[in-house]
C-alpha cells in the first residue's frame, strides 16, 4: 500500500471561491447495493469491448444520453467516450464507476488515470468553469457532497472534482486546471474552488491522473489528513493533504471517473465536447508504492497536432539541459533523416507554464551521444545545456547551440 508521503509542495497562488447557484446535485439512487464484501483492486476499462457507456459506468443526472461511445476521435483503439454540452446549456452528465453496485466495499484510496481531451473548438467565457473529472465522491451517506447544500458534517457526503476554467489565464489555446472540493472545513455553501494554474490544452489528448486518500478517524473525529494529488502529463500539479471528509469508516469512495457540468450559473458559449480514453483505476492494496516514474510521452504520429518539434543531440559526455518554451511542450520520440533516433528519456521532467514563470520548461539528463525529442506549441525561447549540445534542431532546421539564448531574458 502506498505510504502517505509528499509528492509535491504547493506554495501560495491558489484562488478560493465558491461556485454559486445552479450547481448539479449528485443524488444517490435508492435501488442497488450500498456496500459490498469484495475489495476493489484494479480495473482497466476497454471501451472497444462495449456497446454503451452504461455497460461500464453508472450514467446518471443531467442528460445521460449526452455520454456516448464514438470512433471518430480516439487515443488508442477504435472507441472513445464522448460527452456533449450544447450551446446555451450546462448539463452533461456523470459516467462513473460505482463500486458498491459491483459488489465492492468502498475503497479508502483511489488512483485513476485516463487520457482526456477538450474538443478542438473548445471555448469559454471569462471566469467560466466546467467540471470534467471526479477523483472521489460519496452520495450514499448523504447529499452534502454537491448542490450548494453547505458544509459536509462528516457522515453525509463529500467530493473531490477537477475542472477547467478561464480564470487566471490569458491563452486562447489552453485553460487552467482547477480543483473543486466539498469538505468539512470549506467556508462557503458551494464547496471550495482552487485554481491550480496548470494549463490544459485545447484539442489535444492529455494524460490526467488523480489520487485520493480518505482521512483517518480518531474517536469519532475526522483527522485533517485526507489527501488529493493530481498529475497532468506526468507532471505533479496539485497536492493537498489536510482534507477532513468523514467521521466514520463507513463513508469512503463510492464513485470515480468522468463527470461533466458547465457552470455554476454559466452556460456553454458554443457546442462543446469532452473525450475520454484508456481509463484505469486502482484501489487500496493495488495502489503501488510509487507511480510509474516514466514521463508522459506523446505518440510521434500526433506530430502534426503541434506547432513544431525539437531534437537535442549530445556529444561524448553526459549532458544536463533545460528547454524554455513560451507555450506548451511534451516529450516524444522519432527517427529522422539526420540519423537521430529519439527515444523516451525517463529523466525528463516538464514544468508547465504558470503566471509566475511564464514558460513551460523541460529538464533532463541525457546520455552521451543520444537524442531526445519534444513537441511544442508556441515558441522555443531558450536552451541551456552543460556541456554544450552537439546538435540542436527546431522544426527540421539545425541551429547553432552556442547562438541560442541560454535564458529567456537574454
UniProtKB/TrEMBL annotation:
Residues 284-304 are annotated as: Disordered. This is Uncharacterized protein. It comes from Haloterrigena turkmenica (strain ATCC 51198 / DSM 5511 / JCM 9101 / NCIMB 13204 / VKM B-1734 / 4k) (Halococcus turkmenicus).
